[in-house]
Amino acid sequence: MAMADSLIPGKLRGKILLADPSLRGSIFQRSVVLIHDHDRSGAVGLILNQPTGKNVGDFLKSAEFENLQSVPVYVGGPVEGNQLSFCSLWWTPKQGLRWAVRISPDQASELARKPGRMIRAFIGYSGWAEGQLENELERDCWLTIAPESSLLDISHDSALWKRLMGEISPHHQLMALAPENFYLN
Question: Of 144, 153, 16, nearest to 90 (Cα)?
Answer without folding.
Answer: 153
